[in-house]
Amino acid sequence: MQESILKLQETIAENERRIKELSKEIGELEKKRDQEIGGALRSLEESLAEAQRTDTKAQSALDLVKQNLKGEEKKRKDLVKNMDDDAKAVINKEKEVKKITDNFSSLQETSQKDGEAFTAAQQHFNAVSAGLSSNEDGEEATLAGQMMACKNDISKAETEAKQAQMKLKHAQQELKTKQAEVKKMDSGYKKDNEAFEAVKKNKEKLEEEIKKLNYEDGKEEQLLEKRRDLSRNVGRLREAYESLMSRYSSLRFDYRDPEKNWDKNRVKGLIASLITVKDPSSATALEVVAGGRLYNVVVDTEVTGKKLLEKGELKRRLTIIPLNKISARRLGNDTVNVAKNLVGADNVHLALTLVGYDSELQKAMEYIFGTTLVCDTMDNAKKVTFDKRIMTKSVTLGGDTFDPQGTLSGGIFFF
């Protein structure tokens, strides 16, 4: 009977040990999964944000260039039409000038003929006055008759000369007017041509800008489809994230802005959300190192912390770490090197070096991870912790803690 009890006790102990091992494995797998999902979510959100910014910027630039190009194209068409109209007007004016010039030449010839006729009549009159009695046909005529005919010819010639002179003067004035109009049309044509060349150059410049944007047909649709895919992925990961947050409520940190125009950069967030674990195998050890401080909230100053506590409507009690007041300490490099020489450089690390974080959080991270060593095995942890040159707290990858004060604690850390 006693023997059966002992066997049962051994079986129970073995089962308990096995349960601890399985719990440890489950915890490590869950943490690894959570880290991978969180990292993928952040990466996809960043990719989506970057794609959205690039798409918005490219779309705005493309719309602006298209709008400018459309305006310049309209200007170009208007200028081409104006140039065509001007060219037709110039041709019509040139025809009018030619017509006036021809008319002017004809009038000049008429004026010349009238002048010659007047001269001939004057000579004839002089001849008659001298006593000649023959008319233009050589026939005999009385002096009075020839005088009358001569006066009529002179009067007629003078009238025709005056009319020709008036027509000539009018033609000269009209010629000057048409020449001025042609000159003005030439000037307008030149100006329109210069404007056309400017629009043409501007159009070429806009086309070059479109090329620089790497715009091509269908690319916009491809970017939109990529954006939709990223949005769907982010949505799925967000659902997974919310599911994990509901399971591990201690990782959720929400607050209300304590005042108007609140700068959210003043509140950095939970320590757990501000670090990245460089090697998943060290996750358990780092959780043990941080302990409850893993859920402390980092803020920039104690003033921010006070406002957060008083008006932030926090849903649970939280410890706040103000960066400007935190007193941090970091294990010296000499001590770390002694530990590495004692058990091997790859078998012991300062906990602080196993996490990634923003440089502005340095003091907070030193406060939490700066004075504890992480060792691969219990034997190495024991050597490091109780060596008189080191005498520093250490944690194994399995979560066992060694303290130079002589205490040992073990087991998996669940949050």
TrEMBL record:
Q: What InterPro entries does the entry give?
A: SMC_hinge, SMC_hinge_sf
One example of the protein's molecular function in GO is:
ATP binding
In this chain the SMC hinge domain maps to 265-385
Per UniProt, the keywords (alphabetical) are:
Chromosome, Coiled coil
- Annotated compartments: Chromosome
- Protein name, please? SMC hinge domain-containing protein
The GO biological-process annotations, alphabetized, read as: chromosome organization
Under the heading PANTHER family, the entry gives: STRUCTURAL MAINTENANCE OF CHROMOSOMES PROTEIN 3
Which SMART domains does the entry link to? SMC_hinge
Query: Which ranges of the sequence are coiled-coil?
Result: 5-82, 147-247
